Amino acid sequence: MRFERRLLARDRGSGLLRKFWALPWSFVLLLGLVAAVGYVALYSAGGGSPEPYAARHAVRFGFGLVLMLSVAMVDIRLIARLAWLGYAAGIGLLASVLAAGQMGGGAQRWIDLGVMQLQPSELMKILLVIALAAWFHRASHERVGNPLFLVPPLLAVLLPAVLILRQPNLGTALILVALGGIMFFAAGVRLWKFALVAAAAAVAAPIAYDNLHAYQRARITTFLDPESDPLGAGYNIIQSKIALGSGGIWGKGFLQGTQGHLNFLPEKQTDFIFTMWAEEFGFVGAISLLTLLAGVILFGFLVALRCRHQFGRLVAIGIASNFFLYVFVNVAMVTGTIPVGGVPLPMISHGGSAMLTVMLGFGVLLSVHLNRDADLGAARD
Amino acid sequence: MSRREEERRRSVFTRRALVLGGMQFAALGLLGARLHHLQVREGPRYATLSDENRLSVRLLAPPRGRILDREGRVVAGNDLNWRAVLTAEQAVDVQATLETFSRIIPLSDAERSRIERDIRRRRRFVPVLVREFLTWEEMAAIELNAPDLPGISVDVGSARVFPEAEHLAHIVGYVAPPAEGETENDPLLMLPGIRVGRAGIERHHDRVLRGRAGTVQLEVNVVGRVIREMNRQEGVPGADVQISVDAEFQRMVRAKCEIGTSAVVLDARNGEVLAMATQPSFDPNIFSSGVSAEQWREWTRSRATPLINKVTNGLYAPGSTFKMVVALAAFEARVATHGETVFCPGHMDLGDTRFHCHNRHGHGWVDARAAIKVSCDVYFYEMARRVGMDRIAAMARRFGLGVPLEIELPGTRAGLVPTRAWRQARGHAWNLGDTLVHGIGQGFYQITPLALATMTARIATGRAVQPHLTRAIGGQPVQGTRAEDWPSLGIPERDLRLVRDAMWAVVNEQGGTARASRLPAGLGQMAGKTGTTQVRRISREQRERGFNAATLPREFRPHALFVAYAPHDSPRFAIAVVVEHGLSGSAAAAPLARDILADAIRHFGGQRLAEAAR
User: Fold this and answer.
1) How many CB atoms lie under 10 A from the CB of residue B342?
2) What residue segments make up the domains of chain A, in order of their start?
3) Nearest CB to B17; choose among A186, A332, A337
4) ipTM of the complex as predicted
């Protein structure tokens, strides 16, 4: 990909410090609030103790903050230039966990980094957003209309999706595809083309389903309808609904959630942390948390709208949408609105992989914000 | 690209970003509305559910499938088992409840720690077994004290019973509680008192027999009383498995076997196991209610190894019963013709070593038929020398020796037929002397009685029948009941006929080694082969002093073997008998095999008549 190397009109020599002060600190504060909610909820999930979840959550947030601010200092043009290299690295990581899993004889989804476990599928979502943004950055509106131009990015979405599917992790694969769809939409791909792909998928799905092993089908059935397994996922959803509902308007109070503390609520520190929070702080607490999370998403959209280059716009909207998908799928799951499982609530749930990748994405988002007026070269016809 | 083009791109993006943003915030609004519904409108209802009532999901254990014998007799069934269970979510204080319980029915420390461990490991709504096989008095005591025992309930489970007890123990197997970590795949295994197959058919067909758990969702109040049933999903009962063994015949066979004897009877036409006896045995019912430490020590320390099925796990050298395989290997390799004779002077010299025939005076000129009939060792030394060990081993494998068999008894040994490569891989040279010794079935062989019976069935039919036990699952017959289901061995019928004729001569001709063991009149004729395998090498001095194995201490006496099939003209039964330290195949094993085959012909022949009469 060719980018013109003209220097910014603005003074670059002013140094990192000035750039640092130019950061939108209100956004950083917002993230801090969200992480604080996570700390409180995890403190409660730990039975009223910083151990074993909350303290580690705080450490991870600190680490994530440093990572985010460091990435924010990177010039957006460098990120754009490395887009496809990053994508290739992500694919390599996905392939290596798959290979390790196959050799180990079981499903493997993460790489052990010692201090934490990295799930390449989480990282892949950010890398995919950047790669697609780089691709569509080159495209004029006419070019986006050319179906042949859309084939490479389509493959770029499907390749990681298939690798994640093989792990097997249907939920994350679907979220990745949805994220790809959002990127295509934001880039200006015509709606009828989405309809075409959706129709093709609708035709292919039953054929693919027929070719699956019985155990793979069972996995899909449980994924789509957890209540069919009333002792596993279904039980969790029922208990989650009871916990949420019994929280009422004002909640049972901090550390007073009976469902959570009596261990009716499984996985309360990961997938069901929102339930934990909403049982203790009620409807008011739940809506407040949703508002904070919506604020994070809104910031992403504002960055996108204010950016003066297509690459930045697309990156910003992709990162915001990635965060949205996490929030929506998780909260919809614990409220029994949509029947899926296994998606954490980033920045709140216990577990490092989602938080760090989300904060890495926010670092890129901040870089877009700081370089919103940068010249990344124009599209070609 | 022009500025106008860039403007256009930006305006398209802005429009679409607003659409996307609108959709995303609408979706979040939807979640807010959902939360409002759950927490504000339905809040009081859920608060009641949370405070006063609990949702409880219970598993419904399906009955374990039964195991039936050939005639449909139950050889593994279910009996009622009254037991006390504890559901943690219904107990106010688990410790207090257990304390009160043990004042009524004393619990040992081991039981206590097992119960506490189970409670920690399982979901709070899953009942944990406290005590099973309750008597009426104990049940009454629990019911009487029910108010002081929150969380405890009495329910009826099932206990596995084996009506045939030790007669079928090694075939049917036994059941025991699942091991640690085994419970994760199947929620059914979390149920209190559940048993899984640990050996034999119970283990092989465990999945089939187990069935699938049903569930019932209950709304219960704080003390555990069921308010109403909300949702019920019936489980799938375990399927019955019918095995080919005839329990009555099995008992007849076992009655004839002494300690250390094993015998197996196959239907030669299709490999179905009709009886499989090994002595001593054990009572599998003891496993159902838990084996005591002393009982276990007694079983595992006993030199007679009651837990081990010698038919499938006893490893023996086949001795002279192996000679048919050597003859067939020689014919196939075309190193000998049927009528070709070899002179037996009573020994064969190879370098400095003298290889003896069991008949010190020699058999004179013998051809293949005569060599099998009188079990001449020199003839087979010569055949082994000509054909070589590797071709002998290849032929042995085709007859099911030294290869895994398809029998449904987990742990069955494949055994061993040595080859030159096998010996060399262990750092030893294979020399011609080894070949000679292995030509008469002695040496490194490790063969199970089951494999010998399989070999015999294959000689009798010329087909690669596999020994098996399953006749039907859930009433559906399984494949392999007809002779045509089994592929041909690919050995010329002419060669097989000669070998069968020689085996007939072993029993029915003057001079045959099992001449004394003909079938009683009216039951047809059987064909067989004797074998005697040394447990210890006979030294030169012993031989010169006029060796007599009968003077040895029992554990050094040779094993006695016999393989046979009957009737000779249309083979139906194949048998292998091994009498440990029985001295000689013709004296100890052949008469036993004859008696068993006579029983088989009377028993199954009589049945056929009865069926025809109906």
Assistant:
1) 22
2) 25-370
3) A186
4) 0.89
Show residues of chain A in contact with B51, CB under 8 Å. Answer: 246, 258
Q: Are B71 and B247 in contact, with CB atoms under 8 Å apart?
A: yes
Partners of B74 in the β-ladder = B68
Question: Which residues have CB under 8 Å from B353's CB, separation 6+?
Answer: B433
Tell if the pTM clears 0.80, that is, is over it: no
Q: Which residue has the tokens 């190397």?
A: A5
Closest to B91 (Cα-Cα) out of B60, B130, B62, B59: B130
Give yes or no for a contact between B214 and B234, defined as CB atoms under 8 angstroms apart: yes
Q: Under 8 Å CB-to-CB from A337, ≥6 apart: which residues? A: A331, B30, B31, B34
Cβ neighbours, 10 Å, residue B556 = 12
Cis peptide before B192 (omega within 30 of 0): no
- Within B218-350, residue ranges assigned H as helices are 247-256, 285-288, 293-301, 310-313, 323-332
Answer whether B39 sits within 8 Å of A244, measured CB to CB.
Answer: yes
Best of A219, A225, A229, A246 to disrupt the B interface (most B CBs within 10 Å) is A246
Q: Give CA–CA dist B249/B5, Å, rounded.
A: 94
Which tens digit of pLDDT belongs to each residue from B189-243?
777 778 889 899 999 999 899 888 887 777 665 555 566 677 777 788 899 999 9
Residues of chain B with C-beta less than 8 angstroms from the C-beta of A378 = 1, 6
Question: Residues of B with CB below 8 A from A245's CB?
Answer: 38-39, 42-43, 45-47, 49-50
Cross-chain CB nearest to A287 (options B35, B49, B50): B35
CB contact under 8 A, A230 and B215: yes
